Amino acid sequence: MGDVHPPSFFSENTSMKQIDLVIQNKTGLHARPAKVLVNLAKQYKADIRIQHGPKKANAKSMVSILTLGAGKGSSITLEVDGEDEDRALDEIANAIRAGLGDTDSHPEPNGQPPPPKPAPVTSPPPTPGVLQGVSAAPGIAVGPAFHFKQTELNLHTTEIQTNLAPAMAQARTQLAHLNQQMKAKKLGAEAAIFEAHIELLDDPELSEAVQARITNGETPAQAWQTSIDERAATIASLKDEILSARAADLRDVGRRVLSIMLGAPETGIQLPSTPVIILARDLSPSDTASFDPERVLGFCIVEGGPTSHIAILARALGLPAIVGAPESILTLPEKTPVILNGNDGTLMPNPDPDVVERAAQIQHRWLEYRKFAQEQSALPATTLDGHHVDITANAKSVADAAEALKMGADGIGLLRTEFLFLDRTVAPTEDEQYEVYRAIAQTMHTSQGNRPVIIRTLDIGGDKPLPYIEQKPEMNPFLGERGIRLCLNRPELFREQLRAILRATPFGELRIMFPMVSDLAELREARALIDELTQELGTRPVQIGIMIEVPSAALLADRFAPEVDFFSIGTNDLTQYTLAMDRTNPALGKKQDGLHPAVLRLIAMTAVAAHQHGKRADICGELGSDVTAIPILLGLGIHELSVSIPAIPTVKALIRTLKLADIQPLAQQALACSTAGEVRALVKKNQTN
Q1: What is the pTM of this model?
Q2: Active-site residue (options: 30, 197, 309, 596)
Q3: Architecture of the 376-688 domain
Q4: Bridge partners of residue 131, in order along the sequence
Q5: What is the CATH topology of the domain spanning 164-261?
Q6: Catalytic residue selected from 52, 106, 197, 620
Q7: Phi, psi dihedrals of residue 627, rounded to the nearest 5°
């Protein structure tokens, strides 16, 4: 990513050290990696600065870092001056090279890339009367429009109720509460929004600027607002779309503190008693988090893009949303009946009664089906002709495990252990990991039985860097040192994780799964380490499996099968590698289809090999939640579908309507198709017959 200057490039007049680096994060120094950088810099006494072009920023100030506008590929210079400068330079440079813990700017709940950029506002609407924006979250909603407007805060006409310091302290408490609320809703990534807000609130340069203005005669409220406005304007002017969008975060924090100073009550947003579709120029993260989800059908917003917080939160909450909508939505009369189509980014005001009826029927059927499936979630997923399928959860925390049980999961088919390693500057200890694995095992050990937990070992590297693991720059990170390759190259890190898992095995039915295995040598080396540690710890043997996500593993499934206890097919990566398409590239989103016959043939090959050796073949990718794919996957002989937690009830309900005798020949027909589109048409035709 960047090379250290030779000694001659260091300043000879002072002790300051510097190094040139290149930002490799997909979205540059946006809020999350900036937060990691700031927290790391604050651990050192040295003065730490980052220069990007003519701009120089205090590395201990998040606002200062954001104003640099350093996007992906930007060249920066890290300057360190002080008593611990050598250690600071080395560790911060390594953290920047490793991506500052940035797995992605905002992981999507369904694992798909974000929607495309909004179409220009000048684009004509596709249908007369239909207002065109850009899809931010899928789904259809029918209901009355409700205009949301923030209360105006006037510094000149409102008396100050609270001084700045206590207002900031109260704001910090509120943000911590919102963070916990998001976590309670199982929205961990979204909770990080408010962690970043706390970091902005604690920014040293912002505090210095405010104090300087107060010293020059401004009131605390004026000094605060002016300082916020200046810095937000600087961030908003950045050319990088994602970085410039962070100005909204700063304004949100500023407004929160000012509201407290002016005595504005924090009563939440008052919505009508009947559910509505929210229309607004913009929504702050705080506004969005404050809505009662029982009274919101969807969102239509003028400003913001598909990476904005409203888009992220809407997708996480399962509500349809449009961003980049035309200004004319703001002139619609209150309670105007509208149809919000989050699938194609359109809003239809005053639709004809027959159109409303059709849309309402679709909406009603889906909501009723979802409710029915939830009520029946405890029932097993057994086909009409008696074939049982395990439906398990993709999880990443103790809270996820508890939620999966509520949703009727038969176990955890994929425990992503990366959550223990991300957003920190040092690796978790063996004991830290052990406590989490034990808690999850105990959660799944219920009175109804000991439900299995498949723990995937650390799947980090290349596209998912860690600040405390130094890796060389990679031109093709998806083809680089990641998954099992990285762990085998760092045996101490790998050994600690395996020890922690094995120590937790007495508390539940834990199984171990290795990611990104491409040949038998990798499996054998990892398995030998487990055998060694099992003997050392005196623990019972555990089932061991591998992810089938590399085509070579699928092609050699018959060779792998005798040496594993199960296969788990990761359809996201298997599709990516089979079709040679980057699954994070929005331009290829529609072509990234796991029902492509080439992918299906690899799945079928894996299932056949598993059956021949009496082993299981499961699915843990997003394809397992796709209603069109489920009949094909089961017809190919898949034993288990591990899906996102909210999808568990509806997947189980669908399986209870199928017959294995019908879907097995359907799956064979799918293998004979030429395109994914043909496969989907085949299933649709079969469903209507």
Answers
A1: 0.62
A2: 309
A3: Alpha-Beta Barrel (3.20)
A4: 347
A5: Enzyme I; Chain A, domain 2 (1.10.274)
A6: 620
A7: -65, -30
